[in-house]
Amino acid sequence: MIEVHELTKRYGDVTAVDSISFTVQPGVITGFLGPNGAGKSTTMRMILGLDRPTSGTSTVNGRPYAEAPAPLTEMGALLEAKAIDKGRSARNHLLALGATIGVGARRVDHLLDVVGLTEVAGKGAGGFSLGMGQRLGIATALLGDPQTVMLDEPVNGLDPDGILWIRNLLKELAAEGRTVFLSSHLMSEMELTAEHLVVIGRGRILADVPMAEFIAQSSQNSVQVISPDAGRLRDLLIQPGVVVASSAPGRLDVTGLSSSQVGELAAAAGLVLHQLVDVAPSLEEAFMELTRDAVDYHGSTDTTGRTAA
Ligand SMILES: Nc1ncnc2c1ncn2[C@@H]1O[C@H](COP(=O)(O)OP(=O)(O)OP(=O)(O)O)[C@@H](O)[C@H]1O
């Protein structure tokens, strides 16, 4: 279990983390979400004891991580890929770390197999691709068979096969009753992996809820309609508070009305419908809605350098 209590971190004038409290429970995968610069990495670094909090506390399995007698067996963490001695082979890296906690060659070779690095185990990790470095980082996190794992962007650089593999691995770890805490900007992947979410924006907790609840509370529900009379239906549905978009001929995506309202309006006008479906919002839509006011870095699709007057 990870417990964070009124944790604050200031860098000069910047408050990176602003008195946040949350608990990461064992047995479920908890996702840590937030826009760029929200404070996720800073929080994880403080939990790991790599950054000293300005105030507040955090504990891993009941005590500050820095005080754990055998940290690698308490919590395995992946913060930055490739944070290893680049000249060393993957196997030697794991063996050297394993030696500090009584883990030998057998478990090292097993873990190399689990993360899919057996064939390159003797090669210098300096030549590893981003995804291979990530796999090695995950093997390192699992080395001490820890009760808790904390992973910052674990799917970063992984190919589709690797992403599926880590999703299943994390689910297995949680099913074994372990605490699993991970950050990711890949919303579709997080939606498939996590059961609980902690969302942070500008250093503050915006949500700490089960995934299903987080998505359900979004107002982004829409209705998808397919009709041979799409044009007439569109004119009928347009009213204040209703947005009607069309992504294909004969298809309308309606927000602001329920499917029964759309169906009744169509029936009253004698319009034929071929399909009428409620579309639940995605995690991405729910996340964008919640964090709209907490995004510090906005991009633009204008690559011309011209700005609107
Ligand atoms: N060592 C540091 N010195 C000064 N400011 C820092 C430092 N580390 C982080 N910050 C600032 O703290 C804030 C939170 O940064 P942090 O890296 O924790 O965010 P994040 O949620 O992990 O972002 P991202 O999604 O981009 O990785 C940002 O404004 C960042 O610029």
From TrEMBL:
Keyword Hydrolase carried by entry: no
Residues annotated as signal peptide: none
Matches recorded under Pfam families: ABC_tran
Keyword Nucleotide-binding attached: yes
Domain ABC transporter: start-end pairs: 2-227
One MF annotation (Gene Ontology) recorded for this entry: ATP binding
UniProt keyword terms in alphabetical order: ATP-binding, Nucleotide-binding, Transport
Superkingdom assignment: Bacteria
Similarity field: Belongs to the ABC transporter superfamily.
Identification of the protein by name: ABC transporter ATP-binding protein
Organism: Longivirga aurantiaca
